[in-house]
Predict the structure.
Amino acid sequence: PGWIDLIFGFKQRGEEALKADNLFHPVCYSGEAGSQAQAVSGHARSVLELQLQEFGRVPRQLFSEPHPPRLKIPKWEPSCLLKDPAHSEPWYKVVRHISGSVNEDEVLSADSP
């Protein structure tokens, strides 16, 4: 999704951010002491604090390339429960044969509140 690229991805900073109209005041960006020092030197501290209160901090950039699209999940039909009751089993019962380390006592204790 596009919002991931804007908030955490490659459109958060630089040329791609400019193209996406996704730019903020330098004091809003976290992790760049140099740009914050330049921003602070030209303005009163109270003005910059107000900027952060109104617009917040931009989170650290996590991705440097476009985020992949969401996987397409096939449509699930409720009638499949009638054909195969395993579809309504809790996930831990369905996959317990994979690890082989889950015993029946652990499964029963997971069922109780």
User: Anything to note?
Assistant: The helical segments are 2-7, 14-19, 33-42, 45-55, 80-83, 91-94, 96-99, 104-111. The chain is about 45% helix and 0% strand. The two ends are 37 Å apart (CA to CA). The mean pLDDT is 76.
